[in-house]
Amino acid sequence: MSRQADRWFISFRFDVEQQKSVSNSIVGVDLGVKSLATLSTGEVVLGAKSYKKYEAKLSRMQWLNRHKIVGSANWKKAQLAVARLHRKIANIRKDTLHQATTLLAKNHGTVVIEDLNVCGMMANHKLGFAQLPICHFSSFVAS
């Protein structure tokens, strides 16, 4: 069981038979900073711009929350609103990753991923703000 903002989630686990891929095609994935990934087939998978889209709203909500008395009812409501927005941004990112990995798994038999330190590149202030870190992309994709 877990809680995110004002919602509770419970997770279950069950085993399912693995389906073999019909396709025998091999695709290479190049993780990037400007785009989420570029495939060797020429396709470009764009990353979600969720943070850029909601950056101003998040900033305003946090600014308003700063002026509330810590522990008051209004402070709790403001904290909850900020947490909801953070959850919304995270869900958009998760959905983008899920769509990208599903596309790879359904259309290609073998996926080859380069081994670059994308998180390290994102730490560079000149590169890092193009898209916030999505460093767990390679852990979702397997050949």
Architecture overview:
It is built from four helices and six strands. It has a four-stranded mixed beta sheet, with helices on one face. A two-stranded antiparallel sheet has the order 1-2. A hairpin with a 5-residue loop joins strand 3 and strand 4. The chain is of the alpha+beta class and 143 residues long. Helix 1 runs antiparallel to helix 2. The protein has one domain. The chain is 43% helix and 15% strand. The two termini are 31 Å apart.
Task: Report a brief summary of the structure.
With 143 residues, this protein is of the alpha+beta class.
List keywords for this structure.
143 residues; 15% strand; alpha+beta; single chain; 4 helices; two-stranded antiparallel ribbon
Q: Report Rg.
A: 19 Å
Shape: flat
Report the strand count: 6
Number of domains: 1
Runs in which pLDDT lies below 50 for 5 or more consecutive residues are 130-134, 136-143
Helix content: 40-55%
DSSP strand content:
5-15%
Distance between the termini: 31 Å
User: Could you give the order of strands across the largest sheet?
Assistant: 5-4-3-6
Major pleated sheet: 4 strands, mixed
The secondary-structure class comes to: alpha+beta
Oligomer: single chain
Count every helix, treating DSSP H or I runs of 4 or more residues as helices.
4
Order of helices and strands: EEEEEHHEHH
